[in-house]
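$ ./design --mode recover --in tokens.txt
reading tokens...
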């Protein structure tokens, strides 16, 4: 199964590195961002379709502001979002447009790995866009 294109927007360096390593080991192409503003810039470099793993509480631009900006993009249907948060009631996000899952931190790393596997099976890559900058993939 080919890997998915994933944008990981997370300000906690240790958590971001852990998730990035686990997903890269699965063969996914990972682009990372430290905040929503960096994540918006990264969207144009991502192969499509792409899965966005989004923390809600980040500096500069938080996850909710990022989601609002994503909804304004004409290509918004090429992205699916998984919310990751420790501070917000995730039930609110289950019905949010473009959000396929909301996960309460802490969660098992295996949960996020399974979400990305399911995304890769359901939405295989159709474009080679975005081979530059900040991406990393490892094959087992």
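writing sequence...
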């Amino acid at each position: 199964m080919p890997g998915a294109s994933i944008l990981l927007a997370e300000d906690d360096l240790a958590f971001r590195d852990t998730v990035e390593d686990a997903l890269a080991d699965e063969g996914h192409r990972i682009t990372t961002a430290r905040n929503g503003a960096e994540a918006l810039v990264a969207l144009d470099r991502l192969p499509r379709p792409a899965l966005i793993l989004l923390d809600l509480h980040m500096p500069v631009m938080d996850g909710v502001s990022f989601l609002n900006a994503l909804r304004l993009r004409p290509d918004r249907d090429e992205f699916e979002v998984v919310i990751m948060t420790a501070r917000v009631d995730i039930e609110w996000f289950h019905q949010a447009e473009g959000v396929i899952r909301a996960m309460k931190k802490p969660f098992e790393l295996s949960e996020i790995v399974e979400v990305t596997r399911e995304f890769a099976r359901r939405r295989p890559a159709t474009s080679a866009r975005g081979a530059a900058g900040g991406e990393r993939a490892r094959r087992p």
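exit 0
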